[in-house]
């Protein structure tokens, strides 16, 4: 594609590096920014720079935060006895949006994946063990493994279960089954099978 400006081409190339954005979408976004007032584009650039330079990881749970301790870990309203272990910040956001969980989190920063060269030492597993060994660990009674039900996710959950066994805590996983509003005929065999095995009493 021929661009009328080298500066526009450079901007399109950078924007198209974002996930899910191709060259056409990138060009549309760049042209949109050119139409906006210059101060609005400056605000966007400043907010992106501030985000990149000032956002940090919570020293306790490794969630993204503006401060050393994230708002969830700093809240006195959260249940200190529950820790939900997740893969990344997107999972924290998804669970928080349900407004059903009032405990704390621990973000692993990924899952074990030998194919991608990611082992246990590359994840925030040692820091989870350190949390349980510290003063906070005395309050914890349950660890919830909220990890995606993939082969890598199950491998990670199995590894964590072995590492957590000496602490004599209740270790649970999120329920897996047929989604509400879904038809049984369209459910895959593994999901349907797990739904049968994890059946609950009808009330």
Structure in words:
There is one protein chain. The protein is an alpha/beta fold. It has helices spanning 6-15, 23-35, 38-54, 71-74, 89-98, 126-133, 151-164, 189-197, and strands spanning 56-57, 64-65, 82-86, 104-107, 142-145, 170-173. Helix 1 (6-15) packs across helix 2. The longest helix is centred in the N-terminal third of the chain and has 17 residues, at 38-54. It is globular and about 65 Å long. It holds the Pfam family Toprim_4.
The ordered H/E elements are HHHEEHEHEHEHEH
Principal-axis shape equals globular
Structural class: alpha/beta
Catalogue the unreliable spans: none
Task: Give the % helix.
Answer: 40-55%
**Rg computed from alpha carbons, rounded to a whole number of angstroms:** 22 Å
User: On the 0-100 scale, what is the average pLDDT?
Assistant: 91
How many individual helices?
Answer: 8
Strand portion: 5-15%
Distance between the termini: 62 Å
Number of strands: 6
Layout of strands and helices, then pairs:
Blueprint lengths: L5 H10 L7 H13 L2 H17 L1 E2 L6 E2 L5 H4 L7 E5 L2 H10 L5 E4 L18 H8 L8 E4 L5 H14 L5 E4 L15 H9 L6
Parallel strand pairs: 3-4, 3-5, 5-6
Antiparallel strand pairs: 1-2
Function: May play a role in DNA repair. It seems to be involved in an RecBC-independent recombinational process of DNA repair. It may act with RecF and RecO.
Keywords: DNA damage, DNA recombination, DNA repair, Metal-binding, Zinc, Zinc-finger
Family: Belongs to the RecR family.
Q: Which features does this protein show?
A:
203 residues, alpha/beta, two-stranded antiparallel ribbon, 8 helices
